[in-house]
Design a protein that fits this description.
Elements: E1 58-63, H1 64-70, E2 88-93, H2 111-114, E3 150-152, E4 169-171, H3 187-203, H4 205-217, E5 223-229, H5 234-246, E6 254-258, H6 261-269, E7 274-275, H7 278-281, H8 295-313, E8 317-321, E9 325-327, H9 332-335, E10 345-349, E11 362-369, H10 373-383, H11 386-392, H12 395-410, E12 414-417, H13 428-433, H14 435-443, E13 454-456, H15 463-473, H16 526-536
């Protein structure tokens, strides 16, 4: 069927009726790419409608893990559940010239082939695990943007859930589907009190860093392992030191920031270099937090920002860790290996997949920072967000919010080691959710490859439970008997005590009550433990 030329329409280079029948010249679009005339089909079976010309030519798929191998952005990818989780990523080709040069199929291409003609690639993360959220993804042809804009069917009243009868409205990236929103700091309650602390900190910064640098240089290391502790958490600090010494691990790169005089004295009795300056830590509480997110917890979160910022200012790499961590080997031997040299910051996976920690889910109780201009600038900016940290009562949430921007804006390279049974940096997620992995780690000898690098007792309500859990795991190496002090309180062998039958233990604890009602014993019997130890020795 021939098409008669419409003489009433204005001439247009994008109209197929206006193209010269045999000009001998290749028609191109506004980007200089070969134009696809309306009404024609691409050779690919994955072609999009003609209305998407010069924007979406065709698509292909790449196995997810192979894409992550070639274009890793550092987010922790969870294990794929066959038959349930998507196993491939979707790649869109805007022009025919961006397609692979030699492949018979665009399905399950390896990542190198799939991207061989792409001069740049934008990677978008999309949650697939909750189909009831009914998320749609729209890509709008327009000028460049490196942010994702979000609309939800939320009522204007805060903390009210989505409803399909509401119109879509613009919301923040931190809005949750039930309407939860962190909001912004209050000037009176959060910002002005933080400004007062920040002014004092900055006024003393030059003096403090000069003093600190002299002390840190004595450690003869380019990397400092930083801990911060108050009196309320000092029992956990004591155990960390005794635990590592009993295992013969090197603590020569450890440096403690004490937030009170008594903790400073404890560090000295443990032969741990420490620093306390009232101008930085004078208003920090001595007592332990009663739980995650309370006022004391929030105050200590600011101390975490200060101490890492100070050590970076002095010119050192930083491995920051909470005092509720125990080692199986010095983590620097792993973190400073050549295969990880591209990363500016590396984190243990928190394990939580809540909106406010997306997409990196970093646990800010164990992370490594390489000293360079990008990380210095990042921590300078994080320092200025103390009012937000105070409001949300979470160092973690504040760090994620600022870090996400610096990843995109300044190219900060961030990696989170994924949670799960193969992680080298387990914590609360594995403790409570990965029973078989915990059994393997507990019964493995220190020389075995399956032993993790560290264990972090996160996801635990308070200091009391952390101690009880460690006693049961065979990782508690201190005693308070005979009025001992410092290193005299260290044990050569762990103090193992059963407290809860349903939690991981190094001995059979089926005779005691569970902490979670009606939960069965973690181990069937002592024979199961002995057999696994023999197998894993």
């Amino acid at each position: 069927m021939s098409m008669a030329k419409n003489t009433n329409c204005p001439a247009s280079p994008s109209c197929p009726q206006c193209l010269p029948a045999s000009s001998g010249k290749e028609q191109v679009d506004q980007q200089g790419q070969p134009a696809v005339p309306a009404g024609t089909k691409s050779e690919s079976s994955n072609s999009f409608p003609d209305s998407l010309r010069n924007f979406a030519h065709t698509f292909g798929t790449i196995p997810r893990d192979d894409l992550n191998r070639v274009l890793e952005i550092g987010v922790p990818l969870d294990e794929i559940k066959p038959g349930k989780d998507p196993e491939s990523a979707l790649i869109l080709y805007p022009f025919e010239s961006t397609m692979p040069s030699s492949t018979s199929s665009l399905e399950n291409m390896n990542a190198t082939t799939a991207t061989e003609n792409c001069l740049s690639v934008k990677l978008i993360l999309q949650d697939y695990s909750r189909p009831n959220m009914k998320q749609c993804l729209v890509i709008l042809p327009q000028w460049e943007s490196y942010h994702v804009h979000k609309f939800m069917r939320l009522p204007k009243e805060e903390n009210q859930p989505e409803n399909k009868n509401n119109p879509l409205r613009y919301v923040s990236s931190s809005h949750a589907n039930k309407g939860q929103f962190n909001g912004v700091p209050s000037m009176e309650s959060h910002t002005l009190p933080f400004y007062a602390s920040l002014i004092e900190y900055l006024q003393n910064l030059k003096r403090v860093t000069e003093d600190l640098k002299e002390r840190l240089n004595k450690l003869n290391s380019k990397t400092i392992i930083v801990l911060v502790c108050n009196l309320g958490q000092s029992e956990l600090l004591h155990n960390f030191v005794c635990n590592a010494r009993a295992k013969g691990l090197d603590l020569s790169q450890i440096f403690l920031f004490a937030t009170d005089e008594k903790t400073l004295q404890l560090a000295e009795s443990l032969n741990i270099p420490a620093y306390y300056d009232p101008s930085v830590f004078a208003d920090m509480p001595e007592q332990a937090a009663n739980g995650y997110g309370d006022r004391i917890f929030a105050k200590m979160m600011l101390a975490k920002v200060y101490c890492v910022h100070l050590v970076l200012q002095c010119g050192f790499n930083v491995l920051f860790q909470d005092v509720d961590v125990v080692w199986y080997q010095n983590p620097l031997s792993y973190l400073e290996g050549p295969e990880l040299a591209e990363w500016d910051m590396m984190f243990q996976d928190d394990g939580a997949r809540s909106n406010r920690y997306a997409p990196y889910s970093p646990n800010t109780g164990f992370y490594y920072v390489r000293h360079n201009p990008k990380t210095l600038y990042f921590f300078n900016m994080l320092l200025r967000h103390g009012d937000y940290i105070t409001k949300v009562k979470s160092h973690q949430a504040g760090l994620v919010a600022v870090m996400n921007e610096h990843v995109v804006w300044k190219g900060l390279r961030v990696k989170t080691f994924p949670r799960g049974p193969t992680t080298k940096f387990p914590g609360g997620a594995e403790y409570h959710r990965y029973k078989d992995a915990m059994k393997l780690w507990i019964t493995s000898s220190p020389s075995q490859d399956q032993k993790p690098v560290i264990f972090h007792m996160s996801w635990t309500t308070n200091k009391k439970n952390k101690k009880l859990y460690y006693e049961q795991m065979g990782e508690w190496y201190t005693t308070s008997e005979n009025n001992c002090d410092g290193l005299d309180c260290c044990l050569a062998e762990p103090k193992v005590t059963c407290h809860y039958r349903d939690k991981p233990s190094s001995v059979y604890c089926g005779m005691v009550d569970p902490i979670d009602k009606n939960k069965p014993s973690f181990w069937k019997n002592q024979d199961e433990i002995d057999q696994l130890r023999k197998k894993n020795s």
